[in-house]
Design goal:
By secondary structure, the chain is an alpha/beta fold. The protein is 38% helix and 17% strand. It has two domains: 110 residues, Rossmann fold; 179 residues, NAD(P)-binding Rossmann-like Domain (Rossmann fold). It has twelve helices and twelve strands. It has a seven-stranded parallel beta sheet, with helices on both faces. Helix 4 links the parallel strand 4 and strand 5. The structure holds NADP nicotinamide-adenine-dinucleotide phosphate (NAP).
Length: 314
């Protein structure tokens, strides 16, 4: 009988039960047990932990882990809380999640391209104010991050007729997409983008990346979409760039502290759209299937699924 899989989360009970049921459907041969229900012996024996917002102390109480499988794609908090000595961390890489994120990027790009925030303001002021149509082929969308999510978004935007540029840590070649890397590459991308979409992981390198000097590189009237992590953008610098009309609008799905406090100036700002971290929710059924495939593969021949580089931070 295989050793039990520890399920370590700080999710609400209902959500925890729903995940347990989805995981049990995809791995009927496994015993997946919430951390609190594991005996001391089972804690010693567990070789795999499936985690979602786990308490780091619970993970530390499982000394025999070969790897930790996250149910989420973004693992910045895990990396920070577990530290470099943690067992390998496998994050969720799910084509369905990439599709949902690419759909969100296209939807909110259209929102900005078709000037929906400005038409909303016109309506509230009872003004009849047509604006010039901007053809997608005349607009450049700059993607910060060309990983799983950035690449899917890039292709969706290209299909919709936009010009696409992208920035990554290492140099990348992509058909029909102008790619950049390094500090000069970032400056080039920011200065040529009508809309910048952030899909970077939060690391020591990307924290505070979009600050006043970098936002000032964007063309006057450009827009920002942040679907990655709040701390990549310096909030006060973004508000200042919107107030001086350097930037036209920001669509923000992520914030340094979530839920965003009711007192936040973002809520009432006419040039900000606040979303409650919904751009790409995890789809339980597909995610559970991917976790099952990774675990079954490891049980069969010891193949460890691709894991996070803890020093790189993603
Ligand atoms: P990924 O596959 O690891 O890709 C990360 C990309 O960012 C890569 O292209 C990487 O460059 C680039 N990058 C990392 N550090 C960089 C740096 N210092 N300078 C320039 N480029 C850098 O990650 P992913 O799956 O696309 O996910 C990205 C992030 O999206 C997650 O970390 C998470 O924070 C966020 N997310 C948000 C939601 C939501 O609902 N809002 C949902 C899921 C995920 P290389 O290609 O050179 O490695």
């Amino acid at each position: 009988m295989p050793t039990p899989i520890a399920f370590v989360t700080r999710l609400e009970r209902e959500e925890e039960q729903s995940w347990l049921a989805a995981l049990a459907r995809t791995m009927p041969e496994e015993r997946i047990i919430p951390f609190r229900e594991l005996s001391m012996q089972e804690r010693q024996e567990a070789q795999i932990a499936i985690v979602a917002n786990p308490d780091p102390a619970d993970v530390a109480a499982l000394p025999g882990l070969a790897f930790i499988h996250s149910l989420w794609a973004g693992v910045e908090r895990l990396v920070l809380e577990l530290g470099e000595t943690a067992p390998p961390i496998v994050r969720l890489v799910d084509p369905e999640l990439s599709r949902v994120m690419a759909e969100a990027v296209l939807a909110w790009t259209y929102y900005l391209q078709r000037d929906m925030p400005a038409y909303r303001r016109s309506q509230e002021a009872r003004q009849w104010l047509p604006r010039a149509y901007r053809h997608p082929a005349d607009m450049t969308i700059g993607l910060l991050g060309l990983g799983e999510l950035g690449t899917a978004a890039a292709h969706r935007l290209l299909e919709a007729g936009f010009k696409v540029e992208g920035w990554s840590r290492t140099a990348r070649q992509m058909t029909a997409i102008k790619t950049h890397h390094g500090e000069d590459g970032l400056a080039a991308l920011l200065s040529s983008s009508d809309i910048v979409v952030c899909l970077l992981p939060l690391t020591s390198q990307t924290r505070g990346l979009l600050n006043a000097p970098r936002l000032a590189l964007m063309p006057k009237g450009a827009c920002l979409i942040n679907f990655a992590r709040g701390a990549i953008v310096v909030a006060d610098d973004l508000l200042a760039a919107l107030d001086t009309e350097q930037l036209e609008h920001a669509v923000l799905d992520v914030f340094e502290t979530e839920p965003l406090a009711a007192s936040s100036p973002f809520y009432a700002h006419p040039k900000v759209t606040v979303l409650p971290h919904i751009s790409a929710p995890t789809t339980e059924a597909t995610a559970a299937q991917i976790v099952a495939t990774n675990i079954t593969g490891w049980r069969k021949d010891g193949t460890l699924p691709a894991s996070i580089d803890m020093r790189r931070g993603y």
